[in-house]
Amino acid sequence: MAFLDLLRLVRANLARMKGRVAMTAIGVVIGTAAIVVLISLASGLRQSAVRDLSSIGPLTDISVFSRRVLAPFGAPTGGQEPVLNDRTLDKFRRLPGVVAVTPREPLDVPVTLRLNRLSGWVQVVGIEPKEVDRLGFPIARGTARLGNGQVIVGARVAENLAGVIWPGLMPRPASGQNSASHRTQPSPPDLLGQTLLLEILRYTEEGEQGAERTVRLRVVGVLEKTGGSDDYTVFMALSDVLDLKGWYLGRPVNPNRDGYSQALVKVSSPREVQRVEWEITRQGFYAYSAASVLRQINSFFLVLQGILGGIGAIALIVAAFGIANTMLMSIYERTREIGLMKALGATNRDVMLVFLAEAGSIGLLGGIGGVLVGVVLSGLINVGARTYLMAQAAQSGAVSEGISSLAHIPVWLPVFALLFASGVGVLSGLYPATRAAALNPIAALRYE
């Protein structure tokens, strides 16, 4: 049987039972729409979670901690704990795929950063100057070269000095107050090339104010916005931070004996992260990276998509019984027609092909309708969710910018839904097609 002849025959047969085909296809529409909506919800949640990873750091960065540092947070300790010192960092540098290694030592003492009359709290971190070029810092302006008395500042350090309110914490204007004037904030200064004053206050054992030290710092670079804590961080040369910590503690700091608080390991590509993490962990340290979090998120949402897609598939499988019932009823109504086809030379394969094509067409029609309905429902969910979140943000006084979609339809989902619906239709027509092909042509012609 020619393909065009088959299409014409299938179209004519389906047109004779429009009502029954429409009712059967509705079940497929419901099942396909359920698959599209549920999987799009899981995909939207995954996309939102992955987008939030931008605040953790690049996928090629690995943060390394010693067990001693994490012990206050519940990390198990015992035995001879390895020390995160320069000798250990040299071992990390020799690992395949590693391009840069630096301590990341925070200046965890009370500090105040000043620029003329502006002041604010800031996080100060010491890194190895000779590794800065290889760390791939996202420099927006200036240079990534550190020296004594020089610093690289995060993108929002200037906002912190100027007292700019963070996004999401904007208070609501009072009744009758002009909203535009209420939202007027001071412009943050341009810190590039400026000389900042870092003030450190040391307290006595009795808790009284003691000595104070002021350090002059020249800004040589400003980082791009990352959405994470680095936006409010000032990066100094490691030797300067160790010197300031020693002054605050009243004794020299010996990182080769006591170890660094943490280190940053930069690898050449995200594919190398898992292997380098495993090697660092094997040496007795804790390793953490955005890439490992991304792997866990992908695994979780893959399982979630499978579960939600399976729930939608149940409705589609139920619709498959409707297709099978429709095709069985069609056999009884067209028994003499089937006998006539065989008498005119149609083979069992031709008869099976006709019924399978009809069942698959019902599944395809229902799949097309289900995809369209699923896309519309996903869009309505996004509109409803965004409207609700914006209303909640307005009620609480938060800034509503950047509210993402709740449902996301990947490119492969409509194609998969159509193929799945068509496949279910073909499978559901397999038994009726076999019954039709097995009919005896003489008995079929005598059937009343």
Describe the structure.
There is one protein chain. Residues 165-183 have low confidence and may be disordered. The protein has 16 helices and 13 strands. It is of the alpha+beta class. It has two domains: 3-54 and 297-446, no CATH class; 103-261, no CATH class. The longest helix has 49 residues, at 348-396. Helix 2 (18-52) packs antiparallel against helix 14.
Main β-sheet, in a few words? Answer: 9 strands, mixed
Please provide the ordered H/E string of secondary-structure elements.
HHEHHEEEEEHEEHHEEEHHEHEHHHHHH
Q: Please report the total strand number as a whole number.
A: 13
Mass-distribution shape: elongated
Judged by helices, strands and strand pairing, the structural class is alpha+beta
Kindly provide the radius of gyration, computed on alpha-carbon positions and rounded to a whole number of angstroms: 34 Å
Strand-residue proportion? 15-25%
Question: Which segments are poorly predicted (pLDDT under 50) over 5 or more consecutive residues?
Answer: 165-183
Mean pLDDT, all residues: 82
Give the % helix: 40-55%
